[in-house]
Amino acid sequence: KAGVTQTPRYLIKTRGQQVTLSCSPISGHRSVSWYQQTPGQGLQFLFEYFSETQRNKGNFPGRFSGRQFSNSRSEMNVSTLELGDSALYLCASSVDTSGGYTDTQYFGPGTRLTVL
Amino acid sequence: GENVEQHPSTLSVQEGDSAVIKCTYSDSASNYFPWYKQELGKGPQLIIDIRSNVGEKKDQRIAVTLNKTAKHFSLHITETQPEDSAVYFCAASRAAGGANNLFFGTGTRLTVIP
């Protein structure tokens, strides 16, 4: 079974621009979560989508947004990029997180975003 | 929210020796504790996980122990090999109405010296 795929793998943008990252979960997985990884803050949860709805959100500004499509693929968008948004953005998928039981999350290789 | 602390931040061991990484968590409602291995240029890879109804779990050279009373859990790697060199992250989560995001520790860079 193919793993989680993320595109693009590398991205360079300038301050003020916006960016869209894509994630395709493992086949059959319905939940997609996004994390930001930086040397200073480590791995931090951005948001989780299930059945095309955002079910959970971390402590990030509204410039960070996402969506999920009917085939469970997900995108995240960052508007008005800042230098501090430079990070590795990781997507993780799990079978179903319907509450009461935490399903195992499998991570993709990430998208390395550099903001100049 | 949950706070996960991880120690040590770096660990060097001789090939064949054992390595132990420890984590503590703050939220007594956390009930799921995975460990991930991250190699350079790759995403975190799940290596083992444990749920709060189990005290210990083992998979070949890797084992995890959980002490719910003390709110800490540990990763044990025996007979270490050079390919075990990577950054290891612990995490904690609790499933509550769909809120099951992972809270990660700060990572341990393990170096296995041949």
Task: Describe the model.
The complex is a heterodimer of chains A (116) and B (114). Chain A has 116 residues and is mostly beta strands. Helices cover 0% and strands 52% of the residues of chain A. Chain A contains no helices and eleven strands. Chain A has strands at residues 5-7, 10-13, 19-24, 31-38, 42-50, 53-57, 64-68, 74-78, 87-94, 106-107, 111-115. In chain A, the strands form two sheets. In chain A, strands 2, 4, 5, 6, 9, 10 and 11 form a seven-stranded mixed β-sheet that branches. Chain B starts with a strand and ends with a strand. In chain B, 35% of the residues are buried. The A-B interface holds A 4, 33, 35, 42-45, 48, 50, 55-56, 58, 90, 92, 97-110 and B 31-32, 34, 36, 41-46, 49, 89, 91, 93-107.
Rg of chain B, please?
Answer: 14 Å
Order of helices and strands of chain B: EEEEEEEEEEE
Number of DSSP helical runs of chain B: 0
Spans of chain B with pLDDT under 50 lasting ≥5 residues? none
By DSSP, the count of extended strands of chain B is: 11
Report, as a whole number of angstroms, the end-to-end distance of chain A. Answer: 37 Å
> Mean pLDDT across all residues of chain A, rounded?
93
The low-confidence parts of chain A are none
Biggest sheet statistics of chain A? 7 strands, mixed
Query: What's the overall geometry of chain A?
Result: globular
- Give me the number of helical elements of chain A: 0
Beta-sheet strand percentage of chain B? Answer: over 45%
Largest interface: A-B, 28 and 28 residues
Radius of gyration based on Cα positions of chain A: 13 Å
The end-to-end distance of chain B, rounded to whole angstroms, is 41 Å
Total count of strands of chain A: 11
Oligomer: heterodimer
What general form of chain B does the structure show?
Answer: globular
Helix content of chain A: under 10%
Proportion in helices of chain B:
under 10%
